[in-house]
Amino acid sequence: MTDEAYKVVSTADEAEHDIYAHEVRTNTNFTIDRRNKGFSSTDTIDYKAHKIWWEDGKADDRCKIDTNGCPYIIQGYDVRECQHGPDRNIKKKIQYKAEKEEKSKTDHSYVLKGKTLIQNTKKIICPARITQRRIIKFPGYRLENSASKWRRKQTAKTLRKALEEASADVEKEEEIHIYYPTADDHKNHIIGEFAGLCQPVGPEVKAKIRQLVGDGVTKVSYIFTR
Predict the structure, then answer these.
(1) DSSP category for residue 88
(2) How many domains does the chain have?
């Protein structure tokens, strides 16, 4: 796995910044498909509700967590789809289209017809995804990778007891593991420089334009140079 496809950061803010940088660099855009409560929760963690892991059981090697012998719990996940991914609102769109066509039949003849688009959606079933997994490691209970299952089991029991009795005293490290799609993972659309022509303007660019306009700048050519 290359550094481009796999990143580990310490906070949610760092993760958002890194994802935004990836979108800018590749001229792609991703939207949240699903996210569980634990990913963004700031509540006190109920350690009894979490399994202690030594190795990731995920089948996809590209999305496996590697903590080099350090036990951890998975607190939450966040999955984002390419903006050209599956259409999650197709039923609503079909219903809306049918209602619109029915309405056009009953309206007066002078009502203008809507435009018929050859492709009325940017959703073209691209499978590319960004997956984030929020974990908490316990470095004080690290074992060598060659440790036996029995030793891992006994160490996990000791860790579990420590968390139940005085979790505040247990050393912890929080990480967010980010798994990016490669260029080959994107299907049915272009990425890179030319894809930027059909991307929405980013929030930072919008804010800069508003600032310049507020400062009295009216020339488009000047705004482009900023």
Answers:
(1) T
(2) 2
Residue 131 and residue 58 share a domain: yes
**Model pLDDT, residue 2:** 45
Residues whose CB falls within 8 Å of the CB of residue 209, separated by 6 or more in sequence, listed in order: 223
Token output for 146: 């060659």
| Domain span at 30 | 6-91+120-192
Which residue in 60, 82, 80 sits closest to 185, CA to CA? 82
Tell me whether residue 45 is in a domain. Answer: yes
pLDDT band at 121 (very low <50, low <70, confident <90, very high): low
In the DSSP assignment, the letter for residue 141 is: G
Long-range contacts of 183-186 (CB under 8 A, 24+ apart): 183/26, 185/127, 185/128, 185/129, 186/28, 186/82, 186/84, 186/126, 186/128
The structure tokens listed for 113 are 């017809």
Q: How are beta strands 173-179 and 6-9 bridged, if at all?
A: antiparallel
What pLDDT shows up at residue 100? 73
Q: Work out the mean pLDDT of the chain and round it to a whole number.
A: 83
Is there a single domain that holds both residue 71 and residue 49?
Answer: yes
For the stretch 79-89, pLDDT in tens is 999 999 887 76
110 located within any domain: no
Looking at the structure, tell me whether residues 182 and 211 fall in a common domain.
no
Tokens of 190: 């272009």
**In terms of Cα–Cα distance, which of 81, 96, 91, 187 is closest to 132?**
81
